[in-house]
Amino acid sequence: MGIILDSIDFKKGYKVLDIGCRNGSLLIELSNRIDDSCELIGIDASKKNIEKAKKSSKNKNIKFEVGLIENMHYDDKYFDVILSTFLFHHLSFDIMNKGIKELKRVLKPKGKILIIDIGKPIGLYSKFITPFTLWHKHIYSNIHSEVEDILKKNSFKILDIKNTTRLVGTINIILAEK
Question: Could you give the number of structural domains in the chain?
Answer without folding.
Answer: 1
